[in-house]
From TrEMBL:
Region (Disordered) residue spans: 61-86
Entry GO MF terms: endonuclease activity
InterPro entries named in the record: His-Me_finger_sf (IPR044925)
The protein, known as: Recombination endonuclease VII
Nuclease listed as a keyword: yes
Organism: Actinacidiphila cocklensis
Keywords tagged on the record: Endonuclease, Hydrolase, Nuclease
Superkingdom of the source species: Bacteria
Amino acid sequence: MSSTSDRGYGADHQAIRKVLLDEAYGQPCHHCGHPMLKGQALDLDHTADRTGYRGFAHASCNRRDGARRGNARRRRSASLRTSEPW
């Protein structure tokens, strides 16, 4: 498994997260709409292409969304496989 830095969550990401975290408390999670509270695990959510940030989300909501997207991508690529070369 690659490190968090290899996946784009290195020092720059951590610095941005630290600066913005206090502003996230009390705001709604953009996935579920429920408020994000101190003590809850929160992720700084990024766009699918990792060129920008979408804001904070509950860690469980964000990771569920990432798993859903990854599974959909794998299903699409699996459906392109054939038993015979074209």
